[in-house]
């Protein structure tokens, strides 16, 4: 699974651009909990990783794109500027990577081809 993120508007530090914790995908899948409406890994684990892994601030122009592994820890800040920040995240997942637990994403089911 991976995410392809395309900037529709300019994404800057001022309007809360995407931030990636480089190399965090090598730490394995981290359990997340819901806190204040957002899902995030445990604060102790996250704070430890922030000390040893570099943070990439991903400023983008409209049309720029970034592709990242599903286990890369990522976030964006609240947009407190007067400029909008719209991005289009596209998530890819192989059929063989169907969820094993009941989840808000449905399990994979094949689509029948209709021949006319």
Automatic annotation (TrEMBL):
Q: Which Pfam families match?
A: PhyH
Cross-referenced InterPro entries, in alphabetical order?
Answer: Phytyl_CoA_dOase-like
Q: Which cofactor does it need?
A: Fe cation
Show the coiled coil region(s).
Answer: none
- Name of the molecule in the record: Phytanoyl-CoA dioxygenase family protein
Q: Which organism is it from?
A: Mytilus galloprovincialis (Mediterranean mussel)
């Amino acid at each position: 699974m991976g995410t392809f993120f395309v900037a529709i508007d300019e994404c800057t530090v001022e309007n809360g651009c995407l931030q990636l914790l480089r190399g965090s995908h090598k730490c394995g899948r981290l359990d997340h909990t819901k806190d204040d409406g957002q899902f995030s890994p445990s604060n102790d684990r996250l704070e430890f990783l922030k000390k040893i892994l570099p943070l990439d601030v991903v400023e983008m122009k409209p049309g720029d794109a970034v592709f990242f592994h599903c286990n890369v820890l990522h976030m964006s800040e609240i947009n407190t500027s007067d400029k909008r920040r719209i991005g289009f995240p596209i998530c890819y997942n192989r059929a063989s990577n169907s969820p094993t637990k009941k989840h808000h994403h449905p399990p994979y089911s094949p689509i029948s081809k209709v021949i006319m």
